[in-house]
Amino acid sequence: MIGGTCDPRFEPVRAAFYENFTQRGETGAAICVTIGGRVVADLWGGWTSAAKVTRWQPDTLLNLFSVGKGWLALLAAQLTGTGLLDTDAPVARYWREFAVEGKQAVTLRQLLSHQAGVPALRRKMLPNAMLDWRAMTGAIAAERPWWPPGTAHGYHVNTFGFAVGEVLRRVSGRSVGALLREQVAGPLGADVHIGLPRSEHGRVAEFSWPGQLPQDEEPAGRSDDELMGYNAYFNPAGLSGSGVVNTARWRSAEVPSANGHGSARGIARVYAALAAGGIADGVRVVDPGALADARSEQVYGRDLVLHRPSRFGLGFQLTQPERPMGHGQSGFGHFGAGGSLGCCDPEAGVAIGYATGQMGPRWQNPRNRALLDAIYACL
To answer: Are 129 and 135 in contact, with CB atoms under 8 Å apart?
Structure first.
């Protein structure tokens, strides 16, 4: 059932991965772990669909949901390091249409750290509007903040990718997918994508999402806070991927907060570079100073959207006791719905890529936690 290689010192990782299938309901997944840039575990197993026709392979791709937000954070840091972006400048310096409805002074730093106050859209969007870049960015630019920007933070579940992505596009002249391909994936040889070419669709595992999320009309009688939380996930219908995640249209589009695709090896390759200060095998993908800022704490505390504690740098999730990325204090990266994870711990030299093919607990997932515990038990 389990394929791949594992350094003898890291056999507990193989055991935990196997137990994910036998005890924790895993159906198809892969994990890749590097220490100091050296691969110590590269494992895969299970099936790429519920029909159990094709076995998971080392180059199997998967929709990774919010794992892709870590790639956006890297791209923003990259452009900051080259001087094209100033994180303390108003977003409107780069995206003038954003400067309405009280958002004129919102900084890029606030946007990247989920303080901008635009985690959801009030105006009812057409179903599948998330596949239309101009429709989504135009609606976000016109939106009125749900709280005074900079006074609190709330996870911009899906708007984050469009808003940050539009800033990156305006500055670079290239889409998020093109930037990721040209500035990160290509130079590092990392199998990660936002906007997957049709030629690669045959490698994608289906994502199993039992009990699809609601696609109904916005319920009446909700408070403003409840409406914000609902719309963050469900306006437009399909925004989070429910009902469309396994379609060609979804895979091909650029929905940066939700439809990044990659292999476990690809995720780990990106984070191996970040664990080493932004360089791997002589290839530097980000300025070390910009990376240090990107992974420094900006907010930590009650999240107005998630209604639980969250901790963010400039786009990166940071390790926290409630949801650790390892056993130290330096871990950063991003979790994805279902439990997929891309992260690194510079102090320990660890980089991790984990891709799981089914929806599981979004907050404290027992499968990725078992793998993290096993990895650190070997250090």
So the answer is: yes
The tens digit of pLDDT for each residue in 307-345 reads 999 999 999 999 999 899 988 899 999 999 999 999 999
One of 49, 66, 257, 310 is an active-site residue; which one?
66
Taking residue 92's Cβ as centre, other Cβ atoms within 10 Å add up to 18
- Nearest residue to 133 (alpha-carbon basis) of 193, 174, 103: 174
Q: Which domains does the chain have, with CATH numbers?
A: 2-377 (3.40.710.10)
Q: Are 239 and 218 in contact (CB under 8 A)?
A: no
Query: Sign of the CA dihedral 207, 365, 225, 223?
Result: positive
66 is catalytic: yes
Report helix angle 366-377 to 11-23, nearest 10: 160
Torsion sign across C-alpha atoms 61, 372, 332, 320: positive
Do 40 and 9 meet the contact criterion of CB atoms below 8 Å apart?
Answer: yes
Report the C-alpha gap between 14 and 92 in whole angstroms: 49
